[in-house]
Amino acid sequence: MNYLDLFLGVALLVSYVLLFYNHHLTGRKALLYYSLAWLSLAVPVFSSDRGVYIVGLAFFSAFLWAGNVEAIDELTLNNETARSLLYLSILPVLIVFLFYPEHETSAYALLGLWIVLSALLLGFYGGRTLLPMSALQAFLGVVVALSGLIPFFRLRIVPAFLGVVLAFESVRTFLRTSFVGDFSIGSIKDVGLDEKPGLVLVPSAPEDVLSSALVFSRSPRNAPNWFWITTVHDERAISPTNLPKILDMAVKFMREAGEAGKKPIIVIDGLDYLVLENGFPSVLKFLSALRDYALVHGATVFIVGSDDFLSERERKLLRSIVGEGNA
User: Fold this and answer.
1) Does the pTM exceed 0.70?
2) pLDDT digit string (tens) for 69-93?
3) CATH of range 198-326; options 3.30.420, 1.20.120, 3.40.50, 3.30.70
4) What keywords sit in the KW lines (predicted)?
C-alpha cells in the first residue's frame, strides 16, 4: 500500500466518523446510512483483493441508496414511501452475488448504473440543497460503470478519490445545512420571558409566547414560525415520527435567534401524541438532546401537554429531564 492509498483510506474513515458522530447527536437515519457507505468504501482501499473491492462497492451502493432515501424523506416523501424504497437497497449486493466473478464487466456496469439511479433520485426529490451531492454521485456512478470496460478506472485510487470528494461534500451539506422549512427570526418579539433556559412542561402556552416562538403543533396555523405535526402531506407539515427533523429545526432556530440578539423560545405541542407515535424511550432521548441544546443556546422550550398518561416510572424519567421545578 502506498501513501496515497493510505491517505484516501484515512480520509474516508474520517468521513465515516464525522457522519456517524452527527448521527449519534441528532438521530438522523440518513447520517447513519451515509456513514456506513463511506466505511464500506474505505475498507477496500486497504485491501488489494479485487473481490473485497467489488463487495465494498456493492455495500457502498446499498448504503448510499438508503441514505439518499432517508435524506429525501426529511424533505418530501412520506414514511410509507420511504420504507418501500429502502427495501431496494439490497439490490447492489444481489448484483454482485449473481454476476461476480463470472460476469465481472456486467457487475461493474450494473453497480455504476445503480449509483447513477440513486443520484437521479436524490437530485429529483432533494431540491437545490442536495444537487451538488447528486452530481458527484452520478459522476462516481459513471466511473464505476466504466470500470468493467476501461482498465484505468479499475484502479482503486480513481473511485476512492471521487469517494473522498463526495464524502466531504456530504459532511459539509449535512453538518452545515438544516433541512427545514422557512422561519422568520425577524418576527420574534421580546415577551419579557423570565423562564430559565431548558425544558418547561406546561398544560398550555400563552398566545404571546406562541407569537414569538418556533412552534410545532398538532393544529395548523398560517404563521411564519408555525409547523404542523401531522401525517398529512403539506408544505409546512412534519411527521410526528420525524423527531430528528424537529430537533434539527429547533437547534438552527436557537442558533439564529441567539445571533440576532433575541431569546430563543420553542413550543412543542402534543407530548402524548409524540409518545404514541414514537414510544417513550425515543421521545425521552429526543427531549434530553433538546434540553442540552437549549442550555447551550440559552433557549426555553415549552413542552405542551400532561404527563398523566405515563406510568410512575416514566414520569420520574421525564421529570429528570425537564426538572422538578419546570414540570
Assistant:
1) no
2) 888 776 555 555 666 788 899 999 9
3) 3.40.50
4) Membrane, Transmembrane, Transmembrane helix
